[in-house]
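Page header: ASSEMBLY MODEL / two components / 914 residues total.
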Amino acid sequence: MRYALFLGCNIPARVPTYESSVRAVLSELGVKVPNVREFQPGPPEAAVSFDVSKVDLKDIREFACCGYPMRTTDRRSWLVAAARNMALAEKANLDMLVLCQCCLGSLKHAAHALAGDPKLLAAVNRRLAPHGLFYSGKTKITHLFSLLHDEIGVEAIKERVRIPLKGLVTASHTGCHALRPSRIMEFDDPLAPRILDDLIAATGAESAPYPEKLTCCGAPQTGGNDALAEKIMMRKIAGARKAGAVRLVTGCPWCQLQFEGVQERAAGGVEVLTPVLYPRLLGFAMGLFKEGQDLFSDKSCPYVPMPEEPAAAPAPAEKAPEKDDSQPAGEQNV
Amino acid sequence: MNLALPVYISLGVFALGLLVKAATWLGRGIGPEASRFSFGSRLSAAAAGVLSTVFSPKLFTLAAVFFRDILFQWPILRESFVRWAMHMAIFLGFMFLLFFHALGKYITSPLFGENYAYLMPFLLLRDLAGVLVLLGLAVAVIRRFVMSGKRLKTSAMDVYAILIVGLIIVSGFVLCSVKMTSLDVFARMAQDYGSLDPEGTPDDFRALETYWAANYGLVSPTLSAPYDENLLATGEGLNESCVSCHAKNSKAPASFALARFLAPAARSVNGARDVDFLYWLHVLACLVGLAVLPFTKMFHVIATPVALFLKKTVGPFSRPENLVTRRVAELSACTHCGTCSLHCSAMMAYHVSGNRYVLPSEKIGALKKIARGRKLSDAELAAVSNGIMLCTNCDRCTAVCPSGLELKELWLFAREQILLQGRPEPLVRSPFALLRGLSRARLPKETYPEPAAAADRGLSAAFAPLLDADRETEVGEKPLRDLDPSFAACFGCTNCTSVCPVVASFEEPVRSLGLVPHQIMAAVGMGLSARAAGCSMVRDCLTCYQCQEHCPQNVAVTDLIYGLKELAAKNLETDSPSIA
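Prediction written out in full:
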């Protein structure tokens, strides 16, 4: 499959480590990735059973907002914004690899709405025509997790894991907009999702079941109804902590930012859970990241690697979380 | 007329303008916290900041900025080679003319002697510098013209900037060429430097005139080609004494070509008075341009370097007074080049809605007015607050800005200020609010909740009458075209309500939320969409799609709530709720 990497707005501006770790992880798995930032590659002789020639990744600078936040007040803007991105990918003869659940939901929803309404599609294309674009509907929208799980495969990932995260109990948070509505998203089992849990298992870590696994992180209400957003989030965190998790594994910048937002209150005694983006967890298990090992550094919810595990596991670092390869915000988003 | 007086007047006005600008940088404010600081505290904070920078290693960083970003203009090159070439052509050409031509008396003359202006290489270089500026201007005009469909807006100030530079250069060229053709100018030179005049030494004068008509572009009313060979030969001999202080005019190819082009018309416009007129036109264009510079777009020649320095010296660690001052200074540093708008992530919202304030470059214009204390009309304020909320905070504008403006910070604080002024902005209750929520620790605590509360008040107005048990409610509005018709299949099983994480967050959900999801479906079925859209459940919906996933009847519950969110916002914007 040939993909255009779709980053959306939040990742380049506020979660640049998501992008850099995805590029590093996919490179390590053998995919030819553009604009890779530095990382520590594994031994070249390590075998990967996945046929790397099947995946090709490109960047499209002209991508813009997927339309998700516009949907609240203007359906037309949402559809045109989403269709513009899909039309750009179509023009380049590429499918889209999406990292953000909300972008994924927005694009797939828009594609679904346009596929079922030729009049609407024509109206949207009239808006795209002045920009030299046309959307026919042939762009396929894929999430990073689907690529890792279904195309690359858990086995191929396991082969590249050099520091199995034995003893790390995590809670998985797939993200609502990827899971539901399942008839449109066709991503995972909406009631018993397992893609992210399989991927976590490939790193050697454990994904603990917890009752709030399917609930929202609260991010869509942040800034509008902060009290509600926090209530929703804290209930989820409490459930995951009760299940024994010391890290919350995410795959969406909105969820990640939402969970990060409460971190600083750990000092005030609030029981929090450090969120870790899945490609960072994986990259860490692959031994790609030297510094800022946020898996260890968080004293409020510590992870102590099991003693019998490989000596390769580095010592706990005293660094602040999520500041490993600091990159000027927004720089990659142009 | 003496040149000194107009020059002093122009310099005086310019200096006064700079003082006024400096005062506005310290006196005006952007951001809800701006009014907290007095002029004095801003001034002392700025002075302390400047002093602590000057006496620190930061000075080396600033030197690097000066050479790389200001002289070499790296931020423009990074964006586009053509635009860099355009700007460099104007910048280098104009700077050459400023230092070696306008200030020639102080710089060029001591270096190359008094007659440098008529000698090589300066004669050629001045010509080339003018051509360079004109080429740059031509690209600028073409760019503004070609890109106008692509979110590049051209304001009166942009037109002024091109016009004033163009007028200075074109008037210079025309002056130069008309002087080449002018018999009066020639006669004065012949008199002053060769002691030749038509009455006293008619033959020699005639010979030199012929030679200059043939070789220097002079247009003589009595001579035309073919010229008398003997006169030419004598003229060449006489010219020997001229060439030491006046190279051939053809060495300034552009002016010379223009002189040739103007030749047919020259006879009627090359008198001493015409030359004087052109001289004053050229000089006054320069002096007027200089005098009003602080109040035009051309002020960017000062403000943009300042902004590029501030980028390296003022940040979250700085005193809050300086953050406010920086925002105001940045407004002056915007050149309205439109780079931000070309890359804006929310561009399609602009193309669909037509609200120009979605575009960053246009928001700056509105912010300038607001900083100046100008009252915006209600409609304009509503458009500005809609535009500043319709920002995905992707920070691209900040990343691409060639002037180094920290736009993301500007938006963050200006947004709070604007939201407090206008009518309720429904977008505060949309995911666009994420960044203000994440940044709330940096925003003033007292004002932070107000925009969302105002939006809630506005959006819930349509719903309030439903809570009045004694009030009759008209049911049965026409079904809304954009609403998903699947609501008709709802049989009230309450699955949606029981899986809703928002409902589960309240002790008394109906009291807190107005309606819960299955009630909303029922209300839509009864033709009460516009009223139901005002309940807080619609605003508080996370769009997590639990309800839709769990509906046994395949009602698109979340999609319907999305439709109601939009309906509520539209009703609030139009102020004429479409309520049956």
